[in-house]
Amino acid sequence: VPHDPGDVGEDLERMEANRAMWDERVPIHVAGDFYAVEEFRSRAQRLTVREFEIDELGDVDGRTLLHLQCHFGLDTLSWARLGARVTGLDYSGPAVAAAIALARDTGIDAEFVRADLYDAISALDGRQFDVVYTGKGAIGWLPDIRRWADVCATLLAPGGTFYLSEFHPAGNVFAWESLELEFSYFDPAPIFDDSSGTYADFDAVTSHNASYQWQHTLGAVITALIDAGLRIEFLHEQALTLLDRKSVV
Question: Which side of the chain, N or C, has fewer Cβ within a 10 Å radius?
Fold first, then answer.
């Protein structure tokens, strides 16, 4: 279902609510056990990207890599540890600040930019990258998947590689706790949630709890990328859940 331009004003308000939610949760994520940040700091061989991502994307040594919606940069810095020249982009100020601090603490050369995904082209001064990467749990926070695909394609250098590693949208139809069928796979309307805490700490005390996510079917994502001018080379499905601990490679 195409995105309705008439929803743009409301979508901006929803994305601002999402930004406030993420801003509050960044310090919880950095300090908690879920992301194991201290282990990442102390072990130079620690990576948070999955083994299948490394195998599928291939050698990134010396390549410029842009990580969109990078949160506080663990995966971005993991690609740097694999030799990429990395830039991470996220719309959360606290997330970008935490990523810069983590890069400094680990001695990893990385650039982090604060910008909304849809403003990425101007925020990056029109630069293009050998690899454009986006990781798990990202695109559901974006209302317009076709515009997302256009941005990704524009940021990609000629002959470059766009790599999307994302949770399967079929999983979004289930209620979080009961796993009962709750949402339609095909409904493009934003899904509202006001649960406190975070997936990294369900008991965390939080006040900015309103959030909105959008369901993008597999067909919608693939078609948007094709229409943006990209050629699909493979579509692989992995047995992976949000609560899986990240691989140590």
Answer: N
Which runs of consecutive H residues, i.e. helices, occur in the chain? 8-31, 37-42, 51-57, 74-81, 93-106, 120-123, 145-155, 218-227
Q: Measure CA 134 to chain center.
A: 5
Local structure of residue 193 (DSSP, 8 states)? E
This prediction's pTM: 0.92
* 138 neighbors 68 (Cβ within 8 angstroms): yes
Query: Using CA atoms, how far apart are residues 117 and 138, in angstroms rounded to an integer?
Result: 10
Average pLDDT for the chain: 92
Sign of the C-alpha dihedral computed for residues 32, 38, 39 and 41 taken in this order: positive
Q: Tokens 């209302």 label which residue?
A: 143
| Dihedral over alpha carbons 80, 86, 91, 95 (to 10 degrees) | 30
CA distance 54 to 36: 20
